[in-house]
Amino acid sequence: LVLSDIIEKYFVSPTLFRVIRLARIGRVLRLIRGAKGIRTLLFALMMSLPALFNIGLLLFLVMFIYSIFGMSNFAYVKKESGIDDIFNFETFGNSIICLFEITTSAGWDGLLNPILNSVPPDCDPHLENPGSHVKGDCGNPSMGICFFCSYIIVSFLIVVNMYIAIILENFNVATEESSEPLCEDDFEMFYETWEKFDPDATQFIAYSTLSDFVDTLQEPLK
């Protein structure tokens, strides 16, 4: 930012500097248009968007259910190891944060350790929790293990892998379509070239311009 301000102030006018930026962006777009592999990947991602959105809603529904369950059973677990003021099950927002972390298969052991504490001196079963009739800061080992194992299986091993499977499937479809002899870009190039030799759209060109027309075509039509 500082460098661009100096250039605009002392060397180049702001308008010219913006034009240069647009030219650089156009160069990147032309590169993407010319790179067949990148176009195939972007096309596969665009094809995957509706399915990815549906899977995202499914993942949010799973996280919502597990967040409510976690708040009901682990809200007052002693804060130690991976459970602190941010990563805990006291509120819905904090529960979502914890589950989002677990979705990446990271940090679940730190959250599970305090829940495994069920007897003194690891926890205090008679501790008063302000604003709640629930006493104690002990966890429930069996429920905690079932909670984390089931969530990891559902979210990471199933839902997240569904993301990967959909993208790979659409990428294979896009690759098969791009491997065909002619694609939509080839037809578009043909129409644009024909328009130059037939500006009135008569669907005919002079025999004398046929050779020039063929020479103007690009691969694979040339």
Automatic annotation (TrEMBL):
It is a multi-pass membrane protein. The keyword Repeat applies. GO terms for molecular function: voltage-gated sodium channel activity. Residues 12-178 form the Ion transport domain. It is found in: Cell membrane. The keyword Ion transport applies. It comes from the Eukaryota. Keywords: Cell membrane, Disulfide bond, Ion channel, Ion transport, Membrane, Repeat, Sodium, Sodium channel, Sodium transport, Transmembrane, Transmembrane helix, Transport, Voltage-gated channel. The chain crosses the membrane at residues 40-69, 142-168. Its main location: membrane. GO terms for biological process: membrane depolarization during action potential; neuronal action potential. One of its GO terms (cellular component) is voltage-gated sodium channel complex. Gene3D superfamilies: 1.10.287.70, EF-hand. Belongs to the sodium channel (TC 1.A.1.10) family. Mediates the voltage-dependent sodium ion permeability of excitable membranes. Assuming opened or closed conformations in response to the voltage difference across the membrane, the protein forms a sodium-selective channel through which Na(+) ions may pass in accordance with their electrochemical gradient. This is Sodium channel protein. It comes from Thamnophis sirtalis.
